[in-house]
Amino acid sequence: MPDDSKPEELIDSYLAGELPPELVAQVRAYVEAHPGRRGVMAGVHAAFRGEPFLAASAQGTDGLRRRVWRQLEQELDDRTRRDARQETSSRGARSFTRMFAGLGVASVALLGIILVHRTAQTPQTSPNDVRTYRTVATQRARVTLSDGSHVTLAPSTTLRVTSQFGRSTRTVELNGEAYFDVTATTHAPFIVESGTIRTQVLGTTFVVRHYTNDPTTHVAVVAGKVAVARGTTAGIPVTAGMVAVATDSSVVTTTPGDVTSYTAWRNGTLIFRYTPIPDVLATFERWYGVEFRVADSTLTRGHLTASFEDAPRDAALATLAQLLNCSISADGHVITLQVKQNARGMTRRAVHDSFTTSTPVREVGR
């Protein structure tokens, strides 16, 4: 066993669970022979117990363990010297009791430091590590990124953030729909990758919508300015009130106007403005966790203009059936749409309706 001045190497390996059985016994004997370090060791072991990233040889792991051990060792030595100055030898027993109790407090305090460090910093094993935020059907979530930017995720959306976020760039990958409120900074542009489309900003508020197999990406700018690009081509500027509809071959922008139909979902309102019926049904599937089966393809023709303000599922489906002039039947989450007998041959027209209820937005961590 190494001398008392350098116990670090074996203890470090012991805490990481990397020592062979014969050396584990030596470390335990050493700890038992040094009661002051017993409490410290317990604190470190409790802080790291069960954490897989400390048992792996990831980048930065060894350094973290050693820094924590040095912190605890320094605290032990400082308290030992302080008690030695304050207590005389005639009060030795009482001094030792107070010192040991103090070490217990110190261990708890430093354990708190370790836990805060562990919570605030995500371990990185490689530059390609990705943190994924995901919502399912019916669920919305608000994410706070490390640069202070806020992202609200619509149902059935996935946001991926690489471990390099906030360094030379702030790049995220989106599959679904999200509302971005980006913190302004000059050192790293904020980039949203959605399929083959890249939306780049410095600090602004906007919505990006692109789901798997969707041939288009919609970008609606609420405030500020963004640049929408296809692959490596130059970006097309899109300013407040404008919408960009991008495909692999083109980026088409609208004149400035009202983009509420792209942002109202954050408050639970679904607004459709001359929207193709298949897109309306796809939105309902994500929003209400249902699966549509259409008995007659004529139901998917035409467009719909309507507003659903925080509508509960059954009420929304009933109103949708009324607007589409069809009947519905439900088998669990499977909803079948059928053309009413007296509706065949009728021309579908744009209609409008609205009603209210409430649904919460879930908050997820930084």
What does this protein structure show overall?
The chain is of the alpha+beta class and 366 residues long. The protein has helices at residues 8-15, 21-33, 35-48, 52-55, 61-86, 92-120, 260-263, 277-288, 313-324; strands at residues 130-134, 141-144, 150-153, 158-162, 170-181, 190-194, 197-201, 205-210, 217-223, 225-230, 236-239, 243-246, 251-253, 269-276, 291-294, 303-309, 326-331, 334-339, 362-364. It has 3 domains: 8-120, no CATH class; 130-261, Sandwich (Jelly Rolls); 268-360, Phage tail protein beta-alpha-beta fold, CATH 3.55.50. A hairpin with a 6-residue loop joins strand 8 and strand 9. The longest helix has 29 residues, at 92-120. The radius of gyration is 30 Å and the shape is globular.
Quick take:
With 366 residues, the protein is of the alpha+beta class. It folds into three domains: 8-120, no CATH class; 130-261, Jelly Rolls; 268-360, Phage tail protein beta-alpha-beta fold (3-Layer(bab) Sandwich).
Number of helices: 9
- Give Rg in angstroms: 30 Å
Average of per-residue pLDDT values: 74
Binned, the helix content reads 25-40%
| Morphology call | globular
CATH architecture of the largest domain: Sandwich
CATH fold-level name of the largest domain: Jelly Rolls
**N to C succession of SSEs:** HHHHHHEEEEEEEEEEEEEHEHEEHEEE
Structural category: alpha+beta
N- to C-terminal distance: 43 Å
Kindly provide the name of the CATH class of the largest domain. Answer: Mainly Beta
